[in-house]
Design brief:
Helix content: 25-40%
Number of domains: 2
Order of helices and strands: HHEEEEEHHEEEEEEEHHEHHEEEEE
Distance between the termini: 24 Å
CATH superfamily of the largest domain: Creatinase/methionine aminopeptidase superfamily
Length: 337
Amino acid sequence: MVEESDLKQWRDAGHVARRTLEGIKGEIVAGKAWDDVIDSAERFIRRHGGTPAFPVTISVNHVAAHYTTNSRLTPPDGFKGEMVFQNGDLVKLDVGVHIAGALADNAISIEVGSGGNHTDQIKAAREARDASVEMMLPGTPWHLVGAAAEQVHKDAGFEPIRNLCGHELKRWNLHAGKSVPSYACGSENPGFKGEVELGSVYAVEPFNTNGKSGLIENIPPSSSSNIFRVTGNITIRKAMSKGKLKPLGATMARYIEERYNTLPFAERWAYPLLEKPFPGEEKEVLRRKWNALIRKLISIRFLETYAALRCEDRGMIGQFEHTVHITEGGPEILTVA
C-alpha cells in the first residue's frame, strides 16, 4: 500500500512517464533507427527529472515486449534487415520511470506511416486497457478485470494474449505481488485469486493479437531482451566469502548494484563500466571479459536475465498500458500527461 505522504513521488513518476511517451512517439517514423528512439526516450526521462525504471523497449510487429537494443546493436532472433522503422510496422513503445524508487510504467502502440493497416487493432488495445482500468475499484475480483479486457478484444475480432499480464508495483519493485489478468481467466483460476486492493498501485497492460493462439513465447537465447536485474538473492560480501567472486567481479557487481538497485537495467548501460578497470583494452578482449563476468554473476544468482517475447504464431501484437493507484473512489491514473 502506498502511503498518502509518498504519493507525490508516484504521481511525479507517472507524469514523467506519460510525457515521455507523448514527447517521443512522433519520432517513430519510417527510416528512423530503433536505437535512436530508445536513446532519445531515455534522455527525455532524465531531462525531465526521472530515471528509467527499466530500459525503454521497442517491440515491432509480432514482437510483444522486453526488447531493447544492446551495445552491439544485435537484432532479435529471426529479424531480417536493419533495425529501422518501416511503413506499416506496428510498434509498441514501453517506458518506465522511477523517482527514488516510486514507479510508473506505461506503453502505447503506433503504426508507422499513414497506411491505416492496424487502426482497429490499436483502437481495441487502447479500449481494452481503459475497460480494465474502469473495473479497478477496491474489492473487484481479478477475473472481472481480465474479462473486461477480453470482451473488448473479442468484440473487435482480436485475441487477448493470455500468458502476459499486468503487475503490482511497489517501491523499487517493478513486478511485486499480484498479477493483473488481461483475459477472461475465470473465478477459479489459481493465478488470479483475490481482488483489487485499496491503496495499491498496478500496471494495467492488456495485449492483443491478430493471430489465433493468443500466446507469446520466448525469443532465444535466454538473454535476448538485453536486459538484466540484480536478484537480491545473494550479497556481494557473501559471494566473496564463499569464493564465488574475485575482487574484479565484486567491484563490477558493486558498480551495478549501486546504480540500478534491483530494477532492470540494459546491457548497453552497464557494459561501459568494464572500461574503467581496463582502459585501452582491445574491444574483443573486453567483450570476452564482459561475457565471462555476466555468466559468473548469473551462475551465482546475483543477476538474472530476460528473454524478449513474441507472438507464438507470429500474429501482430498491440498493447496499451497505464499505471493506476487504487483509491476509495476508484482508480487514479498516474500516467497522465
